[in-house]
Structures are given as C-alpha cells and as structure tokens.
Amino acid sequence: MSTSTNKEKTLSEMVKNPMVQFIIKAALVYALWEILNWVQMHNTSFGSVWMTLHNGVRDNIVVVSSWVLRTLQYDLIQYDSVLIIKGSAGVDVGPACVGFGLLFGFAGLIISYQGSWKSKLWFIPLGWLGIHTINIIRIVVLAIISHINNDWVDFNHKYVFNTIIYIFIFLMWMWWVRFVENQEKKDSLVQQKNN
User: Which DSSP category does 115 fall into?
Assistant: First the structure.
C-alpha cells in the first residue's frame, strides 16, 4: 500500500472520530455566527430583522424584570430599558444583556454534538428558556443590588452573573451529553434484543 493511500485512510479515520466531527461542526457554527454578525452590520434589511428580534428579547427582559420588581413591592421607575428602584442608580438593559451570543453558542454546542434532531428541537429551546430566565433574574437582582449599594453592581454584573450563566450552559451541555449517551445505550440494547 502506498504512503498516500495510508495518509488518506488515516485522514478518513480521523474525520470519522466523533470528537473531530464535533470540533469541525462547532467551527462551522462559529463561522456562521461571525457571518451573521457581519451581514447584520452591512445589510440594512437583515440588520433591521436582526435588531427587531434583539429588541423584542430585550423588551421581554425589561417587562418581566419590571413586573417581578413591582411584585416584590419595589417602587420602580422605568425609562425605556432603564429600571430604577427609587433611591438607586438603577440598571440599563443594554444590548449585551440580551445574550444573543450565548443563545447561539448554546444552540451551536447542541447542534454540533451527536444526537437526534428530534431531541435537539426540544432541548435547544429548553436551554434558551433557561438562559433567558437567568438574564431576567440577573436584571432583577442587579436592580436590587443597585438599591442596596450601587458600588456592588459592577462586580456582580461582570463576574458573578457571567460565572453563573457559563456554569448553567456547562451543566446543560453535560446533561445533553449524558442524554445522548443514554439514548445510544437504549438503542444498542434494543438492537441486541432484536438480533
């Protein structure tokens, strides 16, 4: 067998490796994210749709956070996307608070890993709901922290809540990996019984 045939066989075997397939798919998803970002900045029509979706998610975070704060009996003032508990500096729900990158990244992890599309179609929205809920909780807690001591807001915003969201995504990812492994074991047992 020639050296080039051995290299082709080795490359073919490497590409069949599930970890290599995951890395390739994840790289493609990341490239798609970068392309979408570029297109939304350079194409007015697509940018308009993108911003409509973005603002819709942001508005939902503001409305639900405002409702939660009022339910907790805080005297709240709202100016567009700024929530202020009377006597505090308040919090502004800015573009980064929406978490589009996190939502897309989570979906990318799940899409890139093995598993049935049917399962992915319920698991991705479940993860998105969790990320969105954490964003709402973050805004509520930051508004309360701002009311208690505004000096604590920056640290909690940058470090505490970023850590929480990444831990959540990691735990969801681990849940997905275990779910896929369990499904593969069940399918294998069913095949063994049928043979």
Answer: S
